[in-house]
Structure formats: C-alpha cells, structure tokens
Known about the structure:
This protein has strands spanning 3-9, 12-17, 23-28, 34-36. By secondary structure, it is mainly beta.
Amino acid sequence: KTLQWYKSSSNARxxxxxxxxxxxxxxxxxxxxxxxxxxxxxxxxxLKTKIHIFTKGKSDYYVLDNSLPKYHRYP
Length: 75
C-alpha cells in the first residue's frame, strides 16, 4: 500500500505516495471533493481549467487565462 493520507491542517488532508513522496490528492474535510494533482497523469487527460485559485501570490512565470474567474483563495 503506497497511498497515505496526512492531516496537513485542521481542515484538510493530503494524499501522497509513501515511497517517492509525491503529492497526489488534496481534500478539504468540510466538503465532498478531492483535488487530484493533474501532473500525476502521463497521458493526455482532456482536463480543462475552470478557475484560477491563489492568484494573489502567483509567480511571474504563471500565465493565467483572463477569460476564467480568479480567486485569491478557495471560492
């Protein structure tokens, strides 16, 4: 069993590989959704970005799609 969960704060936990340490999942315990790190997939996924979050502190190498909503934190 390589998937492990770690309680990273009082309202969230993270799923990671206990062999390589890769961060795979993020789950806010106050909702039903689990965020999956899209970089984990090696084949095309046809995933589409719907919103940008944590944009206030973004680095200059990130290019955001101006047609999508932007949030400084989780909406």
